[in-house]
Amino acid sequence: MAVTSRAGGLLPDHHPTGDFFLCDVFDAPPKDDLGSMEHPMFSLSTRPDRRILTYDHNGTHVTVTPSVRGRATIHDKDILIYCISQLMVAVNAGRDVARVLHLRAHDLMVATNRETSGDGYARLREAFERLAGTRITTNLETGGEEVTTGFGLIDSWQIVRRSKGGRMMSVRVTLSDWLYRAVLSKSVLTLNRDYFRLRKPLERRVYELARKHCGRQATWRVSVDTLLKKSGSASPRRVFRKMLRDMIAADHLPDYHMSEDPGDMIRFTLRAGAMASAPPPVLAPDTLEAARALVPGADVYALQADWHAMWRASGSPRLTAPDRAFLGWLRKRG
């Protein structure tokens, strides 16, 4: 569902559809990992945040230690969302993936609605530095495995190629093993593309929590105190409540409408038409014949139904080559 701008609350769409070629990554819905959606790992500050954050909730312990450049911000997280989205396209198509990704900086900036000016490239470099410098210590489970461990949000990054003007063109990023396990286990959720148009850090964080906890349900209620804790906001409670009321008045959160309930509760209601299911990809008759050759004796229509179910569960991504993706899924399934 597209959300229109109200009172200048949303950033402009810097790259409207049609102004550039949409590759598989752009066509795929943005993906976010469940762990960082559930627990506050990213700073909501617009200034360098050098405080150590310690968070405990229901047996999960998270300590986030910044570098001298400050803790990674919720806007820096755009890079991780882009990387996860790329990997999930490959996983859903049955292709092999790796922790090391080669990215075009311009593609990343366009896909995440960042400005592609000189300042935009400088801010992107700063984001890479904060992501690599921020350290997480947690017992959070990813991919069915709970281990107390410490890691960076990314292990490393490197500018592989520069333009004649010195701007980064090609970047190599190595994701943390923790985040990579989340991708392989498909512990991710699809975000509305208008997430990248949300101007304020708290708006992005509250949307993440609504997407994680409300999802496709009609409604979700949460106390202001719990929302304050899970958001990671450093604002006093009264200021935080005022910020929530401003969000309720603006009413431009993608997918969800916010309102206040008695007892200092906040209600999130799924907007009409939000996250509507797209029709499944159509497979050519020749593809079904090829499937019969790959899996002799199997009911290819049942296999097609299983693949459609997997496709919906992964966020109904747009596939430029659905026949190849289906056959790749069959080969990987064995």
Short description:
38% of the residues lie in helices and 20% in strands. It has 334 residues and is α+β, with helices and mostly antiparallel strands.
Question: What does this protein structure show overall?
Answer:
- The chain contains twelve helices and 14 strands.
- It has helices at residues 24-27, 34-38, 77-92, 105-111, 118-133, 177-184, 201-213, 224-231, 237-250, 285-294, 300-313, 322-333, and strands at 31-33, 53-57, 60-65, 100-104, 135-138, 141-142, 145-146, 149-152, 154-162, 168-175, 188-190, 219-223, 256-261, 265-270.
- A hairpin with a 2-residue loop joins strand 2 (53-57) and strand 3 (60-65).
- The two termini are 37 Å apart.
Multimeric state of these chains? single chain
- Measured on Cα atoms, how large is the radius of gyration? 21 Å
Order of helices and strands: HEHEEHEHHEEEEEEHEHEHHEEHHH
Largest sheet: 4 strands, antiparallel
Strand order of the largest sheet: 2-3-5-8
User: How widely separated are the two ends?
Assistant: 37 Å
Instruction: Report the β-strand fraction as a percent range.
Output: 15-25%
Unreliable residue runs? 17-26
DSSP summary: helix tally: 12
**Overall outline:** globular
Helical proportion? 25-40%
Could you give the count of β-strands? Answer: 14
Q: Overall mean pLDDT score?
A: 85
Structural class: alpha+beta
